[in-house]
Design brief:
By secondary structure, the protein is of the alpha/beta class. The protein has a single domain (about 5-365), classed as TIM Barrel (Alpha-Beta Barrel). Helices cover about 40% and strands about 15% of the residues. The chain has helices at about 10-20, 25-30, 40-50, 95-105, 120-125, 140-150, 170-175, 205-215, 220-230, 240-250, 270-285, 300-305, 315-345, 355, and strands spanning about 50-55, 70, 75, 80, 110, 130-135, 155-160, 235-240, 255-260, 290, 310-315, 360-365. The strands form 3 sheets. Strands 4-11-10-9-8-7-6-5 form an 8-stranded parallel sheet. α1 runs antiparallel to α13 (about 315-345), α4 (about 95-105) runs parallel beside α13 (about 315-345) and α12 packs across α13.
Amino acid sequence: MRRADPAAARDLGDVERAAAAALPPEVWDFIAGGSGRERSLEANREAFDRIFVASRVLRDVSGCTTDATLLKRPVRMPVAVAPVAYHRLVHPEGELATARAAKTAGVPFTVATLSSVPVEEITAVGGTVWFQLYWLRERRRTLDLARRAEDAGCQALMLTVDVPWMGRRLRDVRNGFALPGHVRAAHLDGGAASAAHRSGRNGSAVAAHTAEAFSPSVTWSCVEELRAATRLPLVVKGVLAAEDAVRAAELGADAVVVSNHGGRQLDGALPGIDALPEVADAVGDRCEVMVDGGVRGGTDVLKALASGADGVLVGRPPVWGLAAGGEAGVRQVLDLLADELRDALGLAGCAGVGAAGELRTVRLPQGGRA
């Protein structure tokens, strides 16, 4: 696997291209692809490109800072590393390298249920660590995993609610994608091989594995049960409808993530950034609101804040950095985001993150012309 010099990257597009060059095509497709015709995947990026900000002037931004809080804890910028499966697909150190980079950057790292490194090893790195849960077919295993994350020192639980089963990701289906032998779902399979390793002509082995493990019967009662089972802050990830966000807040969620799962579930699902303003208005101050999907730079973070978000999650870009340059590559991704966000805040007339929520935004029609 050819590694790039992460210091040579000037924006996240440079990192993306370096990662694509470094990875086998079938692994790149697994990371980069979406479901169906990939319309939601494309729309996530296009939606950000249609947003324009009415910047403010004649404001003192000499002390401009990206400092913020997420889940009432201080962070160096309002960004968290989103849960992404199987980091060891792209680098031998996997999630450990990504978590170390997130710690250095002062942002939370979210351990995925499908992490290729156990949560205990990741929390040992230090920093702020959240844990993402899927509701499993065996309810007791789900609650046991939540307790395991809490015992390991995770500081929040994030329940992903938009995956009753994995979306039809045609790149993986066509590739007959399966995990290589050295990559495991550390929290589900331990050291054993699973359906995710059995390649075939009939589709994605990873999809077959998740179909065995994930429950299609996840409902609001599961949110209630998890809320009652943990003292940790609870984040509900994968909402697009304002009514669902309000219901999550009413059941005790500390935050919601407005998300179409990076365009990897329902093809045709609304981009999170387009759903965000209505969700933020509906929940008010009942819980925090984050958004993901299509964030590719600091200006996108500014647009999300101006549209009502308290913060954003970034998924693919840290994995690009990991593939291109290991821990240093992830640090470069997060450093670029921080530098670009500070630049965007200052040029928009905001001395800090809080002022970004006061900016007016305009969403132009597709094509960028009024």
